[in-house]
């Protein structure tokens, strides 16, 4: 109805307002990304964020942290400042098929070129004269892609490290997946060894010439074999160094080609400790998982008969303890922890549970059913399985094997009873930090896939001792040490009596099932199957003093009175976990018997409870002990696996920094 020019004027006016609004919005948006972002965190959380912010300096934000006593959600505040924390995980398996030209055979017909490939060299190694054992080993060589040659080669800016995996059991065998704990960037070689009588070593399940002292010799013999055959490039002595070789060896206190890092799990911890004790100059660092020293009390915990009476008079001075979740829930942290009602679990009850059979009653009932109690001792059930597993009756062996693994895997899978936990609770770590000589709490999560530093958590230190006591299962030990005489004169293993196996097996029906096909399409005959792990674990457990000799005193943490503890259980400190700079490198010259070591223990591990790790900590203060409070025995548990990866990388970075010292040593001959 108005004048046409009024319409044009009003439209232009509206358009001008719109343009001004757009410009203002743009300026405001740009200002948002150029100003300082203010992040309000609960008091006590700023230190955690400062530790993580080192890797974020290249971002457009300049973050200023303001501490506040507000009861805001730590998770919400941190999520604005950093990426969501994650757990470190295993490395992806590397392609292993390589054609004659050294290039990867591409099975998927993709154009993507892998950064790394795995060249696997396998071999066998004869043992001492008179022994029937032939050892199987694999050398996994990580080759990197060379852009210049468009090929995979051994060329690296710096030669990588050599890692050795010592598997558990006894008798579990090694697997290629074990190599995925090692970073290809740091570890050029990862060596796998099937110990005597298991895996692809032969003869399978053989117990003669099979004890810890000989296994230690095997590890050293393998190291020397790899040097002699040139299977580890970095261990090959160049021709120009030959004239200085004698001088270097005569002036160098350590072995010229040690294992850089040994990763041992469960029984592998026992073997790693014995090897490092015997050959201190042949290993530079160790990572232990599921600490086991194969002591009498550890074997009795797993396979011992329950006591006839469960009534135990409470010890004076022992008070009730609340649920472990409650104990770790106090204090401020960057991770929320809900507090459930306290349980009625007491230390008196834990003391009464001196063997696993008292906790896993139904599994033990099945394990011990049909077993003739022919011996009046605490290991009568174990001894019955000994005769059945190692006897000549194939049906008896097969049925015993099935029952044996139901018992072990029932404990392995269930762990200790625990309440429903949040994800944050499951990631809790209680860590002995030897550099600070104190216990600290951490969250296993990290801020990126390259980080080796866990997130620190502030929790009252007054509760440490109570938490440590609650972790114990078959002992209430403190730091006190008592010396007792150990019989070192056990010269023979327990004889195997088929008559006992036959009498026991008469209570069990014979196997009448047809042979079946396994996953490889091969016929599986249960009457000829050799259950190597059950046989060897049982053999070592029954004959523990014989099989562990002469390491009984060392592994029992019980040296003769004339030998101070510090002379056996001491080492240099591992590299610090709180810094991405990795501190100073680990010296190649180790004046003490044991190398720098990080031990990783599951708080809910029912196969190897935390008692042994804590006992070892009491006498070995330089040992860094990392207890994943809610984790079990498996090395593939998400928290345990991440801790193994981080520990191997910490040692890897520190040892790589020390390689320059080796080069200087070779050049100068001193």
Provide a short characterization of the protein structure.
By secondary structure, the protein is of the alpha/beta class. The protein is built from 21 helices and 16 strands. The strands form 3 sheets. Strands 3, 4, 5, 6, 7, 8, 9, 10, 11, 12, 15 and 16 form a 12-stranded mixed beta sheet that branches. Strands 1-2 form a two-stranded parallel ribbon.
What does this structure look like?
By secondary structure, the protein is of the alpha/beta class. It has helices at 4-34, 46-52, 74-81, 212-229, 242-251, 267-278, 296-303, 324-327, 347-352, 361-368, 380-390, 394-414, 423-426, 464-471, 498-505, 532-542, 544-548, 552-555, 611-619, 638-657, 659-668, and strands spanning 37-42, 63-68, 116-126, 134-146, 151-153, 161-166, 187-194, 261-265, 286-289, 428-433, 438-443, 455-457, 516-517, 523-524, 597-602, 624-628. Strands 3, 4, 5, 6, 7, 8, 9, 10, 11, 12, 15 and 16 form a 12-stranded mixed beta sheet that branches. Strands 1-2 form a two-stranded parallel ribbon. Strand 1 (37-42), helix 2 and strand 2 form a beta-alpha-beta unit. Helix 4 packs across helix 6, helix 10 packs antiparallel against helix 12 (394-414) and helix 11 (380-390) crosses helix 12 (394-414). The termini are far apart. The relative contact order is 0.13.
Which descriptors apply to this entry?
670 residues; alpha/beta; twelve-stranded mixed β-sheet; two-stranded parallel sheet; 33% helix; globular; disordered N terminus
């Amino acid at each position: 109805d108005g004048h046409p020019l009024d319409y044009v004027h009003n439209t232009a006016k509206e358009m001008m307002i719109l343009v001004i609004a757009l410009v203002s919005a743009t300026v405001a948006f740009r200002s948002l990304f150029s100003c300082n972002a203010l992040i309000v965190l609960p008091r006590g959380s700023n230190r955690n964020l400062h530790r993580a912010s080192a890797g974020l300096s290249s971002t457009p934000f300049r973050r200023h942290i303001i501490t506040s006593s507000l009861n805001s959600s730590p998770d919400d505040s941190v999520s604005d400042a950093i990426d969501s924390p994650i757990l470190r995980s295993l490395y992806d398996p590397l392609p292993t098929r390589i054609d004659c030209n050294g290039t990867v055979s591409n099975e998927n017909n993709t154009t993507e070129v892998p950064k790394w490939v795995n060249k696997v060299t396998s071999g066998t190694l004869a043992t001492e004269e008179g022994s029937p054992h032939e050892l199987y080993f694999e050398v996994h060589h990580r080759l990197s892609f060379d852009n210049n040659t468009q090929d995979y080669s051994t060329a690296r800016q710096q030669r990588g490290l050599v890692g050795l995996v010592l598997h558990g059991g006894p008798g579990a065998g090694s697997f290629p997946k074990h190599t995925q704990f090692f970073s290809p960037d740091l570890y050029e070689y990862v060596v796998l060894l099937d110990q005597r009588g298991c895996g692809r070593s032969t003869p399978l399940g053989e117990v003669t010439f099979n004890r810890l002292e000989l296994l230690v010799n095997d590890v050293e013999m393998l190291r020397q074999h790899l040097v002699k055959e040139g299977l580890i490039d970095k261990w090959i002595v160049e021709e120009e160094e030959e004239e200085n070789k004698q001088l270097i060896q005569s002036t160098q206190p350590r072995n010229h080609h040690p294992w850089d890092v040994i990763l041992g799990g469960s029984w592998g911890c026992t073997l790693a400790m014995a090897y490092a004790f015997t050959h201190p100059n042949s290993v530079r660092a160790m990572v232990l998982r599921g600490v086991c020293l194969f002591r009498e009390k550890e074997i009795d915990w797993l396979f011992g008969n329950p006591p006839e009476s469960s009534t135990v008079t409470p010890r004076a001075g022992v008070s009730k303890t609340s649920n472990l979740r409650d104990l770790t829930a106090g204090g401020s942290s960057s991770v929320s922890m809900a507090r459930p009602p306290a349980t009625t679990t007491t230390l008196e009850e834990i003391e009464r549970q001196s063997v696993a059979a008292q906790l896993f009653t139904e599994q033990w009932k099945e394990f011990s059913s049909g077993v003739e109690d022919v011996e009046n001792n605490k290991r009568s059930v174990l001894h019955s399985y000994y005769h059945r597993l190692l006897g000549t009756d194939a049906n008896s062996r097969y049925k015993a094997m099935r029952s044996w693994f139901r018992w072990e895997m029932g404990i392995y899978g269930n762990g200790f009873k625990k309440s429903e936990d949040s994800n944050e609770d499951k990631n809790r770590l209680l860590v002995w930090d030897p550099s600070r000589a104190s216990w600290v709490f951490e969250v296993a999560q990290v801020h990126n896939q390259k980080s080796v530093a866990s997130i620190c958590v502030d929790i009252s230190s007054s509760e440490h001792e109570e938490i440590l006591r609650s972790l114990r299962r078959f002992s209430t030990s403190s730091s006190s040490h008592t010396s007792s005489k150990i019989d070192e004169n056990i010269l023979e293993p327990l004889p195997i009596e088929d008559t006992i196996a036959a009498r026991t097996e008469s209570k069990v029906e014979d196997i009448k099932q047809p042979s079946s096909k396994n996953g490889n399409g091969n016929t599986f005959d249960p009457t000829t199957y050799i259950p190597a792990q059950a046989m060897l674990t049982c053999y070592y457990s029954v004959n523990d003093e014989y099989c562990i000799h002469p390491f009984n005193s060392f592994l029992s943490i019980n040296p003769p009175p004339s030998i101070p503890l510090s002379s056996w259980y001491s080492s240099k400190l591992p590299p610090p976990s709180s810094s991405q700079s990795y501190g100073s490198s680990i010296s190649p010259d180790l004046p003490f018997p044991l190398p720098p070591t990080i031990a990783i223990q599951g708080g809910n591990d029912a196969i190897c409870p935390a008692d042994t790790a804590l006992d070892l900590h009491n006498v070995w203060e330089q040992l860094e002990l990392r207890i994943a409070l809610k984790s079990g025995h498996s090395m593939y548990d998400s928290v345990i696996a991440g801790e193994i990866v981080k520990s191997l990388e910490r040692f890897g970075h520190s040892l790589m920094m020390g390689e320059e010292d080796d080069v200087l040593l070779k050049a100068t001959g001193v």
